[in-house]
Amino acid sequence: MQKKIQSALISVYYKNGLEKIIQLLKENNITIYTTGGTQKFIEDAGVSCVAVESLTGFPSILGGRVKTLHPSVFGGILARREMESDLQEMKQYNIPEIDLVIVDLYPFEETVKSTDDEKTIIEKIDVGGPSMIRAAAKNFANVLVIADKNNYTDLENILSQKNAETSLEERKQFAAKAFDVCSGYDMAISNYFNKTDFLNPFVADKKVLRYGENPHQQASFAGNLDEVFEQLHGKELSYNNLVDVDAAIQLMNEFNSSTITFAIIKHTNVCGIAQSVNVNEAFNAALSGDPESAFGGVLIANASIDKTTADTLNSLFFEVLIAPSFDADALEILQSKKNRILLKTKNSVQQKQMSKTVLNGILSQDFDKGNFAEWKEEGGRNSSPEEKDNLIFANLVCKHLKSNAIAIIKDKQLIGKGCGQTSRVDALRQAIAKATQFNFDLKDSVVASDAFFPFDDCVKIAHEAGVTAFIQPGGSIRDKDSIEYCKANNLVMVITGLRHFKH
Ligand SMILES: NC(=O)c1ncn([C@@H]2O[C@H](COP(=O)(O)O)[C@@H](O)[C@H]2O)c1NC=O
């Protein structure tokens, strides 16, 4: 049903951006009702308006806590124009109809970010604004609601059309958006009161993705990628790219930028990682750990990409390269492939909680932070400084493999990994097979396990392959079997007390 806009209620916190709308309302002879600060802005722009006080018969009271909360305002928004009884009551109480509601809420989230003063924060909980938005959205059959400044251009287009009319479908779409605004606003307030940090899908920019994990799945992303990285080149990031970029960034957050580290991610697992004296060598070592799997992977470095590395990388087919910076000549080389995605990282992502959907509900948990809770040398001898370095590195790499996971490290290079296996011994066998496939000598290598060894079979198999040191959380009722084997064979066994399952 087409509806002509004849009256509007405007109550906005930030006034900028309204200029053209005010002029268009004037041109269309639309009566404007408004609140104090907004009234001044409109009148300064040379447009006359009606103070909401003249509808309510009350001034704004309690320092602005109550100004629009009144039947004369809400009656005008909520009245069902098609219902005779509503219209009669409107007439009886002398309430004018309001056809358009424009609200910009108090900036609650901004205030929380800028101060710790509770009184200031509480005063920025808008009460009248969300109430007007909800009322207008509920009555979308008759009223158009604009609750987001991003929709000002849409409103300008509507007001520029002949008769300033809207369709029912159009009003319903704006109502849906308005309820999103209210939900996001309330969730931000709830996060503040409950001291939680739940991701807010309503306030975040929602990006429709080309498709999901597979082409027949629709997908979207709610978040702010601009805070995480700058895309310097390449095609739009897909759903799978975003998942792998997240895995890559989470992994690289583990490593101090003073040690040059390069990693290759495939389907969220680390398939190559190494530390070295320069980026090019780190990349070569990461790649040679499993050159087969690296094809089409997501690459990440914690140091600037120079020309030498770009030249080496250029021959590899990869989807995404992430780094804190790129030298100009390196960028030129890497941009030679049109679709190749190049991302320059900004701040590290400091998420406190992670969530996923299960059984039609949301499971949330803290991030798995840290490497080891304790360092107990329980084997036949203590680790040498070099072994210790490799064990620390191995444990962090293993943490970023899907469970059950085993990582084999030698000289700060991942030479074998087993992940996503249903038994730990299979994960180990897979890791050894990978290392053997690419001709690595496992002699003096170290093994990390994401969870305890339930039996002594893993340490025996690894030892026979050449491994001399192990790191694992411990906690099995048969820990002593693996420990005894290490003692008997002069092997290092570090117990960390911190399990790193990743499902
Ligand atoms: N309390 C009320 O009745 C009320 N009615 C509207 N507001 C808000 O007041 C602001 C506009 O006020 P002004 O026009 O006075 O600058 C808007 O952000 C609007 O959402 C209110 N403020 C807070 O709840």
UniProtKB/TrEMBL annotation:
CDD domains: IMPCH. Keywords: Hydrolase, Multifunctional enzyme, Purine biosynthesis, Transferase. Pfam families: AICARFT_IMPCHas (PF01808), MGS (PF02142). InterPro entries: AICAR_Tfase_dup_dom_sf, Cytidine_deaminase-like, MGS-like_dom, MGS-like_dom_sf, PurH-like. Residues 1-147 form the MGS-like domain. It comes from the Bacteria. SMART domains: AICARFT_IMPCHas, MGS. GO terms for biological process: 'de novo' IMP biosynthetic process. GO terms for cellular component: cytosol. The keyword Transferase applies. Pathway: Purine metabolism; IMP biosynthesis via de novo pathway; 5-formamido-1-(5-phospho-D-ribosyl)imidazole-4-carboxamide from 5-amino-1-(5-phospho-D-ribosyl)imidazole-4-carboxamide (10-formyl THF route): step 1/1; Purine metabolism; IMP biosynthesis via de novo pathway; IMP from 5-formamido-1-(5-phospho-D-ribosyl)imidazole-4-carboxamide: step 1/1. Its EC number is 2.1.2.3, 3.5.4.10. It catalyses: IMP + H2O = 5-formamido-1-(5-phospho-D-ribosyl)imidazole-4-carboxamide; (6R)-10-formyltetrahydrofolate + 5-amino-1-(5-phospho-beta-D-ribosyl)imidazole-4-carboxamide = 5-formamido-1-(5-phospho-D-ribosyl)imidazole-4-carboxamide + (6S)-5,6,7,8-tetrahydrofolate. GO terms for molecular function: IMP cyclohydrolase activity; phosphoribosylaminoimidazolecarboxamide formyltransferase activity. Gene3D superfamilies: 3.40.140.20, Methylglyoxal synthase-like domain (3.40.50.1380). The IMP cyclohydrolase activity resides in the N-terminal region. Belongs to the PurH family. This is Bifunctional purine biosynthesis protein PurH. It comes from Ginsengibacter hankyongi.
